[in-house]
DNA sequence: CTAAGTTAGTTGCTAAATGACACGAAGTGG
DNA sequence: CCACTTCGTGTCATTTAGCAACTAACTTAG
């Protein structure tokens, strides 16, 4: 069934990775795309950009760009730079999703992209009604689908990003990246519920969060409203996303 | 803090993804690497190849190659072709791990690679002692480390692959890909234990597997030995990797 | 032919974890 | 000061994990 080939022949040698410059094969076009997700009024939204040039001119697409070998340290740095220059978003949570590459996603030929997911705090981005209101906009991501048809295979990438986030929310503290630095436990629970699309028992939720031990109270600070004030929490310094032992 | 930029300026436009051909930026070199994992005598092993040319001539490296735009449908197809041509391994379990790319991993400059993980059944590959015994070999992956120093950032990729597999084994049926098509429940339990590095309670393990409902008995077939024969199982047709509700 | 040894597979029990729910606490507004 | 709302915790039935014992089915030694 499986076995090791006898020898790498001449053709194989020529196409050895990182051995010689490719011979007879064009280098695929490499891009970096970022799926930006946030919660707006309790619904997951993504930031899309209307393409200004062919292919897919006038079609909505993910925020993306090329690697700048002179500027970019690595792939994540490239994603962060693109995020900053194209969407004006600075240093949020960015993680690589996966690569997508084939012959058909771009009419110009074989291309590859490194898809990333960026999470930004709820409602910190106000929708723009200025010069670029018509080229950059938030779109709701309801039941694993967005309203507009997307360029390239971006619908597939977006779906993969949302699936990744939904799965990861089940067993990590990922939602903290969708909240401002200080929040209440009820705020956090709402985010979990909104992304997972199902209610979570309050006492169980609080038990899990307490066990995970990644939050601390801000002593003496409470969210005031027309009822019992809620304790304000923040993430313990030095901690990032926490993995729970079990599902939330 | 976060906001949408006013407009994409001239420079941004020039570097718009998939809009125009890159101007002033070289295309990074694109490769596909595969971390091949199997169990040999109860220990996780990976298949490495000694590099025949610079850079890193004579150093052990992952199996990898270039994308062939004419032949390869997509990234996974490229990984499968490389697997076949370089290691003689056909259609096993292949999944993309993630992309790695920066300016320092290859002395020739900015390169990117799409790292994949391939799992192949235990002990179906006999170690070769033929012509290429010295250029292709199995290496044990013990405590998140392999014996030889690896070329490029392959040590990091290998570590990421092993971490991914270890994590995924906790809550999926991934180990079935490390077994032949027919196996006993004890075989399967052994694989889980060997990869996770801890014992699992027999009765609990069998309960979980039964609940997950992805195996079926092969009626009348038993593994014969010098004691009570064990029922042979196979994966139900049409099912691939199953996700459990809880950890194993 | 039988007893000992080994692995397969199931069952039972106890302690801990989980899920559903209720109740007291702490504020506001009429 | 009473009704109302949300915060936060406590209670308890049910489920699950961890452990161990037990039966089943076979081989081999004597």
Estimate the global geometry of chain A from the Cα principal axes.
elongated
Helix vs. strand class of chain A: alpha+beta
The CATH homologous superfamily of the largest domain in chain A is called Nucleoside Triphosphate Pyrophosphohydrolase
Rg measurement of chain A, Å: 22 Å
Strand content of chain A: 25-35%
Number of helices of chain A: 5
Task: Describe the main β-sheet of chain A briefly.
Answer: 7 strands, mixed
Question: What's the level 1 CATH class of the largest domain in chain A?
Answer: Alpha Beta
Name the average pLDDT of chain A: 86
Distance between the termini of chain A: 42 Å
- CATH fold-level topology of the largest domain in chain A: Nucleoside Triphosphate Pyrophosphohydrolase
Uncertain segments of chain A are 1-24
Determine the oligomeric state from the structure: homodimer
Q: H/E series of chain A, N to C?
A: HEEEEHEEEHHHEE
Known CATH architecture of the largest domain in chain A: Alpha-Beta Complex
Report what the structure shows.
The structure is a homodimer of 248-residue chains. In chain A, a hairpin with a 2-residue loop joins strand 1 and strand 2. Chain A folds into 2 domains: 142 residues, Alpha-Beta Complex (Nucleoside Triphosphate Pyrophosphohydrolase), CATH 3.90.79.10; 64 residues, Arc Repressor Mutant, subunit A, CATH 1.10.10.10. Chain A has 5 helices and 9 strands. The first copy, chain A, has 248 residues and is of the alpha+beta class. The longest helix of chain A is centred in the middle third of the chain and has 18 residues. In chain A, strands 1, 2, 3, 4, 5, 6 and 7 form a 7-stranded mixed sheet that branches. A two-stranded antiparallel sheet of chain A has the order 8-9. In chain A, 36% of the residues are buried. At the A-B interface, strand 1, strand 4, helix 2, strand 5 and strand 6 of A face strand 1, strand 4, helix 2, strand 5 and strand 6 of B.
């Amino acid at each position: 069934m499986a076995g090791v080939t006898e020898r790498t022949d001449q053709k194989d040698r020529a196409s050895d990775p990182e051995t010689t410059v490719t011979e007879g094969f064009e280098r695929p076009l490499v891009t970096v795309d970022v799926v930006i997700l946030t919660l707006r009024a309790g619904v997951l939204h993504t930031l899309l950009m209307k393409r200004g040039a062919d292919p897919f001119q006038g079609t909505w697409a993910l925020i993306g760009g090329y690697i700048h070998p002179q500027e970019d340290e690595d792939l994540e740095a490239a994603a962060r730079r693109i995020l900053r220059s194209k969407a004006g978003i600075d240093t949020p949570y960015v993680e690589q999703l996966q690569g997508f590459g084939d012959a058909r996603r771009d009419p110009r030929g074989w291309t590859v992209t490194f898809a990333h997911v960026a999470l930004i705090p709820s409602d910190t981005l106000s929708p723009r009604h200025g010069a670029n209101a018509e080229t950059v906009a938030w779109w709701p991501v309801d039941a694993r689908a967005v309203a507009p048809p997307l360029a390239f295979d971006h619908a597939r990438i977006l779906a993969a990003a949302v699936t990744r986030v939904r799965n990861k929310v089940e067993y990590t503290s990922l939602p903290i990246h969708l909240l401002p630095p200080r929040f209440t436990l009820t705020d956090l629970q709402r985010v979990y519920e909104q992304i997972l699309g199902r209610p979570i028992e309050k006492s169980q939720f609080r038990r899990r969060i307490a066990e995970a031990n990644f939050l601390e109270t801000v002593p003496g600070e409470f969210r005031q409203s027309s009822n019992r004030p809620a304790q304000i929490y923040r993430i313990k310094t030095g901690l990032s996303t926490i993995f729970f032992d079990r599902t939330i």
